[in-house]
Structures are given as structure tokens and as C-alpha cells.
């Protein structure tokens, strides 16, 4: 995968801890479905275009890392577990950065 082409990424994790280091990609959309286990989604260093994300987290803790100046909106459906979202703005299950986020689709 490369940052030259925008990417629609769909990740399904059944059981087990997962770490997604996606900062080097250029995303159009991101969908993550995590069944059971801790999930870390790291977009630190992301320089791609605007994108929307949808994360379904079943059982386990979720950690989100995003650049503060990105234009990103993340919809999260969280089952059992904590969400670590330092620096993000949380509103009704959505997380945004301080950049101008476009509405979720």
C-alpha cells in the first residue's frame, strides 16, 4: 500500500489484540470491525486527504491517535471497554479533530 492512491480500507478483526499503524496511507474511508480484544488505531503522522471512519468495537479497549490538524470524523460504536481519545472532540459517539471535519455519510 502507498500514499499515492486514496484507499478505502475495511478491516475485520475477529478475536485478539490489534494494532493498525495507518499514518503513512492516504485514506478515503476507513471501516474497522473489532470483535474481542484491545484495538489501537494509530494515524499519527497522517498527511493524506480528508476521510470519514466508522469503528465498531466489541469487547476490549480502543485507543485512537490522530493528528490534531486533520479533517477527520470518526463514528464509534463501542461495546464493553474504554476509549482512549486524548485530544479528540467527543460528541454523541463521534470523534473529531480540531480541523474542519465534514459530516459523516
Quickly describe the structure.
The chain has a six-stranded mixed beta sheet with strand order 1-3-5-7-10-9, with no helix packed on it. The chain has a four-stranded parallel beta sheet with strand order 2-4-6-8, with no helix packed on it. With 105 residues, it is an all-beta fold. It has strands spanning 7-15, 18-21, 27-36, 39-42, 51-59, 62-65, 72-80, 83-84, 89-91, 94-96.
Please characterize this protein's 3D structure:
There is one protein chain. By secondary structure, this protein is mainly beta. It has no helices and ten strands. It has strands at residues 7-15, 18-21, 27-36, 39-42, 51-59, 62-65, 72-80, 83-84, 89-91, 94-96.
Task: List the topology elements.
Layout: E1 7-15, E2 18-21, E3 27-36, E4 39-42, E5 51-59, E6 62-65, E7 72-80, E8 83-84, E9 89-91, E10 94-96
Parallel strand pairs: 1-3, 2-4, 3-5, 4-6, 5-7, 6-8
Antiparallel strand pairs: 7-10, 9-10
Strand ordering within the main sheet: 1-3-5-7-10-9
Radius of gyration: 13 Å
Unreliable stretches (pLDDT < 50, length at least 5) are 100-105
Profile the largest sheet.
6 strands, mixed
Sum up the overall morphology in one term.
Answer: globular
How many separate domains make up the residues? Answer: 1
What portion of residues is helical?
under 10%
Terminal CA distance: 25 Å
Q: Please trace the helix and strand order, writing H or E for each element.
A: EEEEEEEEEE
For the secondary structure, the number of strands is 10
Fraction in beta strands:
over 45%
Number of helices: 0
Please state the average pLDDT score. 84
Structural class: mainly beta
